[in-house]
Structures are given as structure tokens and as C-alpha cells.
Amino acid sequence: MQPPPRAPPALLPGLLLLWAAGHGRAQEVQAENVTVLEGGTAEITCHLHRYDGSIVVIQNPARQTLFFNGTRALKDERFELAEFSRRRLRLRLARARLDDEGGYFCQLYADDTHHQIATLTVLVPPEPPLVQAGALAVEGEELELTCLVPRARPPATLRWYRDRRELPGRSSHRQEGKVFWQRSVLRLRPERRDHGAVLTCEASHPALGRGQRRLTPFQLDVQYPPSARIHPSQSVLRQGDTLVLTCAVSGNPR
Ligand SMILES: *[C@@H]1O[C@H](CO)[C@@H](O)[C@H](O)[C@H]1NC(C)=O
Ligand SMILES: *[C@@H]1O[C@H](CO)[C@@H](O)[C@H](O)[C@H]1NC(C)=O
Fold first, then answer.
1. Is the dihedral of CA 65, 67, 68, 74 positive or negative?
2. pLDDT higher than 50, residue 73
3. pLDDT for 186-209, tens place per residue?
4. Measuring from atom 11 of ligand 1, which residue has the nearest CA?
5. Do 71 and 157 contact (CB within 8 A), yes or no?
6. What domains are there in the chain, each with its CATH number?
């Protein structure tokens, strides 16, 4: 491959790549990959290089023409041509859906046809997880807690915490169409001192901002049988003293 001709410093790295690929003399079109949240607005940009007025066509992943040189061809009002200039063409998609995913084609009908594909990826962030206990929590008996995220794409990562300490859960997921259902099961054997303790299930996901998580707390309500303790009012007794005995009973429920 020949070294590229001296490129003007303002060129984008992607365009330099194309240039280096040996097409330096001709007009070019270049597209970028785009990620959008479900329901959000995506913007797909096709960069034009040395545009000479040739026809530019944008097609959806099913290869249906969305815009023919700037004129709407497919009747889907969610798509809008935000810009068509000599430098770029910007396609805006509102209320993005999972079935909008795929490759969008930017075609330039010049002497030789160029096309570039922008890959649109639609992410589904998780809602706060649902946490449920398999049974009533009883002192000394095994308890199963389930943390569920019914819908996310890609799968979320689920973790259990008590205070800041992570507890080992068993995670599983399955794909339902394009989205993932997932859960994490935590097994524990609560003691009476765990009554009132708060466990948290945390979902992290690439579509949530950096460091952001969805959290659901779960407070343990541990059932335990009553026990009684008797406290005398004094330990040394003389004849004629009055003795008060206090009986303290604890149990859940009372
Ligand atoms: C866009 O995504 C496709 C498919 O994942 C990949 O092959 C291509 O290299 C990506 N292009 C850019 C410019 O990142
Ligand atoms: C395509 O559209 C561009 C921008 O509006 C225009 O400059 C160009 O002349 C059009 N090309 C043809 C062949 O109609």
C-alpha cells in the first residue's frame, strides 16, 4: 500500500483511514456506529468527503430507502433528516425501538458507488430489581431470596450486599427475543439477631451512567420463638426484704 498523500491536519482520524485505504482522490462517505437507549433519540451521521453533488441514499437495515438525496422515501415519521450539507448528512431517529437495530447504509452514487454502514445498537437499561423471599424468614431455617430483572439488554449484573459486604448469589439469565431476563438467588439461614437487617440487590448495567446502579433493599423480618429471662431486683437478700422479679419475654411476632 502506498503512503497517503499529505493530509490536511483538520481531517478526522476516520477519514484519514479511508484516505490511507487508497481512495484519496475520490469523494467519500463515512458512517459511525451509534448506541441509543430504547425510547431515546439516535443520530446517525454520514460524513461526506469531497462531495460533488452526487445522489446520496440512506437505507434502513431492511434496505428500504429512508431518504433519497434528501427527500423522504419511507413513511416513518420517527426518522428525520436533520442536516444535509456538503460535509455531512445527519439522520435522526426518535423513539428508538429494538427492531430499529442493525446497519444503516449511506450510499453515494458517484462514478463508482461508495457505501458505508452505521451500526445502530439499542440498549435497554434495567428497572430497579424486584426482590422477593421464597417463604417467611424463620430463625435457623434456610431462606431463599430472589432478585429479578425481567428485561434488560445486554444482561445486567446482579449483586447482593449486606451493609457494604457482598454476599454470594447464584445468577442465571435467559434471552427472550432481544432482551434478557435475569435473576440472582441468595440462600441464607437467618438468626434472631438478623431480624431487621437490610439486604440489598444491586443491578449494574452499561446503559446506566458510570457508577450508577439500580438498588432494591429488603428488610429481614425473622420469626423466632419467645424466650423468657427472669431478673431479680437484687442479688443479696435479707429476711424481710421485698424481692421484685422481672420477667422479660422476647419473640417475633410478640
Ligand atoms: C461498526 O460496527 C460494526 C459491527 O459491529 C463493525 O464491524 C465496524 O468496524 C464498526 N465501525 C466503526 C467505525 O466503529
Ligand atoms: C442531491 O442533493 C444535494 C443537496 O441538496 C444537491 O446539492 C444535489 O444537487 C442533489 N443531487 C442531485 C443529482 O439531484
1. positive
2. yes
3. 999 999 899 999 999 999 999 998
4. 33
5. no
6. 26-123 (2.60.40.10), 130-225 (2.60.40.10)
